[in-house]
């Protein structure tokens, strides 16, 4: 009696086409990772259709070109009011002024080096008499002897400064 009961307990008799069973099988397929990625894995095995003249690629290139052209024109329209109106750099007064300043600066540096080297006099050792004559002329000259004091400026009511100026004179 108990053997028949245990045997009957282990055998379940469910109809395979009931709505609950059908729904459970469909949910099992939906939740299965293997079935979820099966179509993607098969597409990867086949490879890609990447011809250069494929319609999606051509449309992507065209949309990229359109977007690039649009961005360029938008930037151009923003900058249009900031242009100075000169066709070349030589017509622009600020750029031509900067070029002229740079040229003058280069000329000044070039001439400075020339003038520095020009002022150095190299006298041979046997011309000591010329050097002695120059030193004698410097001693005789009173340009180095006189040291002029600066010109005083003062208010008319500063008697002590006026008196000191007269004393220096």
Automatic annotation (TrEMBL):
Pfam families attached here? Nebulin
Q: Which InterPro entries match?
A: NEBU/NEBL, Nebulin-like, Nebulin_repeat
Annotated protein name in UniProt: NEBU protein
Q: One GO BP annotation here?
A: cardiac muscle thin filament assembly
Q: Name one GO cellular component term.
A: Z disc
GO terms (molecular function) for this protein are: actin filament binding
Q: State the PROSITE patterns in the record.
A: NEBULIN
Origin superkingdom = Eukaryota
Q: Which organism is it from?
A: Nothoprocta ornata
**Keywords (A to Z) from UniProt:** Actin-binding, Repeat
TM region(s), chain numbering = none
